[in-house]
Amino acid sequence: MTATSHSRRTVLAATAASAGALALAACGSDDDSSSGSPSPSQAADGGAGSEAGGDEASAGSGSGSAGGTAIADVADVPVGEAVPVTADGQEAMLFRADETTVACFSAICTHAGCSVQPEGVELRCPCHQSVFDAATGEVLGGPAPEPLPAIGVRIEGDQIVTE
C-alpha cells in the first residue's frame, strides 16, 4: 500500500509541476514583460501599470517600427471602455482611455484563470468577483493576487496594433 501512495504522490507532484509550467507559459507574452524587462513602450511610459497608461507609446507617433498585428479599429473601442479582442493569440481586453491612449491586458484572471468581462473602466471576473482597473490591469478587489499581464499595443493610423 505504501508503494501505491508513493506512486500517487509522485503522479500528483508531476501533474502539479506540469500544470504550473503550462500556466506560466500561458501567462507569458511576446513583449517579455513576464521576464521583468520592460518593452520599449513600458520603458517610455513607466510601465504598463503607470497612470500614463502608455500615452507616449500608444500615440502612434510614427516610431518607424515595422508595425504590429492589427487587433481592432480605433473607432470600435469607445473612449472610457474596454472591449474583448484577441492579441498575440490570446484572449485580451483592450481599453481606450482617450483619443490617443490605449492599453491591453490578458483577459485571464490571475486568481483562477477565468475570463474577465468588461464593465466600463473595470474588468470583472465572474468566477470569484476579482475586479481589475481596465486602464492599468491592477487589482482593485477580490482574491486575484496579481495584476493582469500587459500586452503592448499602440495606435497606428486608424488601427490599434500589437507591438
TrEMBL record:
Domain Rieske intervals: 69-162
Entry's transmembrane regions: none
Superkingdom as given in the UniProt entry: Bacteria
Disordered: region residues: 27-70
Low complexity: compositionally biased ranges: 27-45
Key words of the record: 2Fe-2S, Disulfide bond, Iron, Iron-sulfur, Metal-binding, Signal
SUPFAM superfamilies reported for this sequence: ISP domain
Cofactor: [2Fe-2S] cluster
Protein name as it appears in the record: Cytochrome bc1 complex Rieske iron-sulfur subunit
Role description: Iron-sulfur subunit of the cytochrome bc1 complex, an essential component of the respiratory electron transport chain required for ATP synthesis. The bc1 complex catalyzes the oxidation of menaquinol and the reduction of cytochrome c in the respiratory chain. The bc1 complex operates through a Q-cycle mechanism that couples electron transfer to generation of the proton gradient that drives ATP synthesis.
A Pfam family the protein falls into: Rieske
Entry annotated with the keyword Iron: yes
Signal peptide start-end: 1-25
